[in-house]
Every structure is written in structure tokens, then in C-alpha cells.
Amino acid sequence: MLKQKLFLLLISTANILVAQNNTNTPYSLFGLGVENKTATSGLTGLGNTGIAQKNKFEINIFNPANLGNIEQKSFLYEFGLNGTYSTLKTNNNSENITNGNFSHIAIAFPIKKDWGVGIGLLPYTKTGYTIDIENPIEGSTDTYITRITGTGGLSKFYLSTGIKVLENLSLGVDLSFLFGSIDQESNLYTSSFVSISDQNNYGGVKFKTGFQYTLPTIKGSETTIGGTLELPTSLSGTQTRTSYKTSSGGSSISIENEVENDLDDFELPFSYGLGITSKLNKNFTTSLDYRKLLWDKTNQQQNNERYVNQSIYAFGLEFKSSKKKLSYWENVKYRAGFNYNSGFLKISNQQIDSYFLSLGLGLPLAKNNKTTLNLSYSYGKEGTIDNHLIQENFHKITLNLNFVGNWFNKRKID
């Protein structure tokens, strides 16, 4: 009965998750919006590392190979929340913005020993911007204003599986379904008012594979290496446009009413990732990840912008006491991390990069259970004020609640 209620909770939360996808950054104007930097369990506090993170009681969305390590007869379910306080600034102005979102829901469970399956839903990209553009009126010294507003984004539903093929080697695959709409409204304020609303729908499938291999233990230290490959894919798109004109006298005239057009496919790049995680002296765990996304192979370009190859470097450090677990705080995990992202967009010959520093805690909720509340705080920066661009400084709080329960256990009858 409890498990049925949990499934209903996951389904109802999924509806909220798809609807709640808030952001406010001018860089979401380009492409499909800004990438949602979601991490499960305590990986946000570790700088979003995770390619080589092997944990039988936590969900790892970065590498499906970890599913081969899930504890038999266990059931993992997790949902996350985050809140962001950002300051957007240029050379002359600044603006403060607050956003909050559901970040993900996910479940994972074993099919049998050394074989696990995962299912999840999370935002893939987010779009949110309002931009005013002043345009000259031809043959006149007057100008008119065009206000462009964008909302929406894409969601990602994934199915993944992992299997331990050897004692120290796990392999995994991940199939993701991307879907959603990016809505853009353009309002022109001249002698009359013109409104153009575009609903841009995209959809497609992504495929990822990964491995994790644990090296022989040396002087009590255990090291795992991991890798992932994501194949390139194209997202097909359609546009529905509605537009109308309102004269100065107040009468409205429909120009287009739900006119449908095909959009050019949006290409997602081939990417690969490598990671290494080491457990040192039973107290410390270090993680180092590198990812490369080959955007220049997609040949996508817009006006004064172009897509360039993207590199992501991440480092994480976790401490947990190896003493006898007599007190609550000896069971807490303490985390720190750093993440640098070179970005994939170049505007006015300036690459839009970002970084963040993170601190986190893994707080156990039950003495004899692995259920954990993972909290993290991140501070970071994206963009620059150089070349008349915009810089975002942000503070982010993340909450991931990771439940660990029993599954497929037969009830004993006395």
C-alpha cells in the first residue's frame, strides 16, 4: 500500500515538475535555452561530479553503469528542489532575481543481483527572458520598441539500466526522450500594436552508454574509473504562430491564427566524459570529472553567435568519519566541490563560460536506514560584462531527498 502511494506521489510530482521550470537569464534566448545543471543525491555538493561515483544506495544520473551496483531487494526513490538568488549586471545596470524549481524525480531498483533499472524525469533546458529592442523608423528620427519575451524549455524522461558483468566492471545504457516547447512573444509598439506569439515544439531521443571499473585496492585505497559516451542526435521541431494587430482606435485584426510551420532540426553534439573517484583511508573520497561536447560538428550558427566545443571540469571532496557510528554527526557526510564550464556559445567573439563552488551535507534521516537528506549551497558566475554582455552571479540552494526502502520482499506469515 505504501509503495502504491509513493508511485502516485511520483506521478503527481511529475506533472508539477513539467510545469515548474523557472529561470530568468538573457542567455536562454539562444538555442533551446540554458542547460539545467541537475545532479542527484549528494553530487551537487561534489561539484556535479559523478561519472566514477559508485554507490549502491544512491541514484547517479551521470553514469547508468552505477545501476549494476544497486543493493539487491532495495528500492531507491528521490526528488529534488532548488532555489536561486541571482544578480544580473551590465556595465551600467544590475537586477536581482529569485527563482525556485522542482529539479527532478527518479527511481531505481534491481531486477536481480548485479542488474538494476532507473527511471526519471527532469528539466533538460530552461528559457526565461524579457528583452526590449529600440528600432529606428525608416525615413524618420523616431523609434519604436520591440519587447521579446521567452518562456518554457525542454524536459527529459529517461530509462536506464546497468549490469555488473565482472566483479569490478559495470556497464550501462541510458535512453532519454526530450520534449517540450519554447514560447516566444514579440510585441511591437508603434502607432499601432502588433503581437506575434510563437510556440516552438521540439522532440527527440538521446542515447548514452557508460562504464565503471574498480581497480585493485592498494594500501586500503579504492579507486574507480568511469566513462560515458553520448551519441549526437537531432531534435525535430514545429512552430505554431498566432499574430494580431491593434490600431490606435482600439480595433483588432487577426494576421495569423495558429499557422503551423516546420522548424530546422536542432542538433545535439557527440560528447564523452571521463572520471576517477578514490576512497582514501576510509575517511575521504575524491572525485575528478572531465566532459567534452563537440558542438562545432553541429555547424549551427546564428547572426552574431556561434556554437563552439564545450569542456567541463569538476572536482569533489567528501569526508565521513570512519569511527564507530555512536553519534548522529559521525554518520553525516561533509562535501565540497568546484565546477568550471567553458560554455558552448560564443557571442561577439566572447565565449560564455561559468563556474561554481559548492558545499554540501548528507544528513541521515533514520538510524538504521540509508535514507538521506542531501543539502548543498553553491555560489557561481556565468557570462561577463565585457563587450556589452551580461554577467550573472548566483547563490543556489539544493535539496535532494533520497529514500531507500525494501522492495519485492515477501511478507512473513506466523
Automatic annotation (TrEMBL):
Gene3D superfamilies: Outer membrane protein transport protein (OMPP1/FadL/TodX). SUPFAM superfamilies: Porins. Keywords: Signal. Residues 1-19 form the signal peptide. This is Long-subunit fatty acid transport protein. It comes from Tenacibaculum adriaticum.
